[in-house]
Amino acid sequence: MCGDENECGVAGVMSVPSPEARSHARQVHVRGRAELSSPPDRAAVTVSVRSTKDSVNDVTNSVTRRLDYILQTMRQHGVQEEDTAVRKHVRREGDLYSMQTEVSVVFSDFEKMQRVRSVLIEKLDRSVCVGEPRFEHSSQCLNLLRRHVCAEAVETARLKANDICSILGQALGQPLLVREEESQEWGCGQEGPALPLKLQQKAGQTLVCASSCVCVIFELQPKNSTKKL
Description:
Elements: H1 5-13, H2 19-25, E1 27-38, E2 42-53, H3 56-76, E3 84-93, E4 96-107, H4 110-124, E5 128-130, E6 134-136, H5 139-168, E7 171-187, H6 199-204, E8 208-221
Antiparallel strand pairs: 1-8, 2-4, 2-5, 2-6, 3-4, 7-8
Helix pairs in contact: 3-4
């Protein structure tokens, strides 16, 4: 037994911390941030065909001939059927019949898209309207961007923690916690003058940027420890 309450009190204060407390004290908390951008991976093009004739049969035949050529051109360039959609609309305008057909095509190969557009414009001229490409990001493309920017933020945090350990004369141990605290996405394409642009320049105006901020807790270890990250 202790003969003095004060001595017992002091002894209690100076007791050895538990292993859990020591482990909690030997940690380094860092944050890492990263920002990446991604170009579009898809382009949608709409080709419109319109005709006005005296009868439904005449207007249908007129549009069908050009529609068949458009679809044949797509097949010859390896465009998959599931990437093509056709919409038709017929209406009567007084004594005449008007028919309009739209072929919407999604391309993942931008050079192939340019070749198809060139063939249709050259062969069909003004009998069809070949629209300008609309660049888009697929859900797979956006998910990949999110994963990459988060991983880049974690790597930034690891490098920062490693620098801190070097200053303190410690070794960087295993990560104990990784938490993404913030993520954002926004359009970050470069706005340019209203001039004719090349394909790459148009795609560059449709970039998507993403940022990620993570908090990572690493274990601190003695310099001679073999258990390093």
